[in-house]
Amino acid sequence: MATRGQDIVSVIKEQIEHFGATVTATNVGTVVEVGDGIARVHGLSAAEYNELLQFPHDIMGLALNLEEDNVGAVVLGDCSLIKEGDEVRATGRVVEVPVGDALIGRVIDPLGRPRDGKGPLNTDKTRPVERVAPNVVLRKPVDTPVMTGIKAIDSMVPIGRGQRELIIGDRFTGKSAIPIDTIIAQKGGDLICIYVAIGQKTSKVAQVVATLEKYGAMEHTIVVAADASAPAPLQYLAPYSGCAIGEEFMEQGKDALIVYDDLYKHAWAYRQISLLLRRPPGREAYPGDIFYLHSRLLERAARLAPEYGGGSLTALPIIETQAGDMSAYIPTNVISITDGQIYLEPDLFNAGIRPAVNVGLSVSRVGGSAQRKAMRQVAGKLRLDLAQFRELQSFAQFGAADLDKATRDQLERGRRITEVLKQPQYSPMSLGKQVMILFAVTNGYLDDVPVDKVIACEESFHRFMGANHPELEQKINDDKEIKPETEEALKAAIQAFKEGATY
Hints:
By secondary structure, the chain is an alpha/beta fold. It has helices at residues 2-17, 151-156, 177-185, 202-214, 232-251, 263-276, 290-298, 329-337, 346-350, 373-396, 405-420, 431-442, 454-468, 470-479, 484-499, and strands at residues 28-35, 38-43, 51-55, 59-66, 71-75, 87-94, 96-98, 107-108, 126-128, 166-169, 191-198, 221-226, 255-261, 302-303, 312-320, 340-344, 363-364. Helix 7 (290-298) runs parallel beside helix 8 (329-337) and helix 10 (373-396) packs across helix 11. The protein is 39% helix and 18% strand. The N and C termini lie far apart (109 Å).
């Protein structure tokens, strides 16, 4: 019996000797009010702005309002599981998102959680979603194009790598179609694409993913989805998460393209959060820092100088206007931040001119420096011809019979250019194909083709060139310009096509 007592004593002594309880200090607070996705927490005296907070049931929150007696936090999860009196812990971490090649081909939410049922992400590298934009010293002028495969855009509103080009227009004018076609056009190329869906219908996000998979574009694409059913804080975080993923590729020296669809819904989500946090409202009830919301996001798109890796991040933000009002608060803000805009007009769309690009209101502030020489050779004339046609068209409707021959010829040329610039969805074209057909129309080779036959003639022309002169398209793609011998061969090929043309 004594032996057993001694054994117990020795065990207790051993435990006391090896007792190594470490003391840890945790910043803890208590929920004093919760509702509408917002929790007010008393305590958390050392909480930082944008710090992640740990609520019960593994729910995370984000500290956005640091007030004198409480912290206003947005809840990144199911708010109904949190109740008054719950303990909240500060994590000491800011919001981070997983990054790296493992994300390519996946659909994730803004916190990096998989949404596609393909299992966990095989990456342990993360980046904070918010970061200061690269300064002027780190940047290089934009000089390399992003080939969208869309004739109307590559010829007249070129987009360069590292540029921010706004796509703006009313509902149902084909805004999302342009970046989706651009993503499809990068198949087999070196551009990694990120599509960020903010506040979209879940069915639309599923449709976009299905389309990208159908055309083999998910092999170079990441989809970050915060659909309409997601809480406002996740919609607010979505574009910053997508941008952080893109910056990782940019800093590796790669080229990335990011689409924000759309920033109007992003501003709505931020306004909702701000009003619930009782921040003072300003114009249209948006908070005072609504401009900074988008400027700090879009300024992160850049083309880095070669000594800093030489990568690029190109941004295509989308803004949905209400009844064509480009002078509303959010559209004017984003127009002033971006390097140009593509304006899609409902009247053109309804008239069957698709993509419905309004050439007069669309502009690229990078311009010809982000265009291949071959495209510059055929497109310089194109924009002028189309602008003159639009001007003449408004006069011609009053009395076509009184017009002189030169004016009538210009109108006819303009009608054919308009037909050539029409393009079906999901059918992006290579540089060579675009240059060949634009060369034909701007040099008058289609002037004798009836307007209603131009589209059929173009299809027939591409088939003819593919079957009889595939080397011409390849040469333009390789040289990136129309050399004198290529021009002669192209003229001869167009003549041969016209002699035996059937369309």
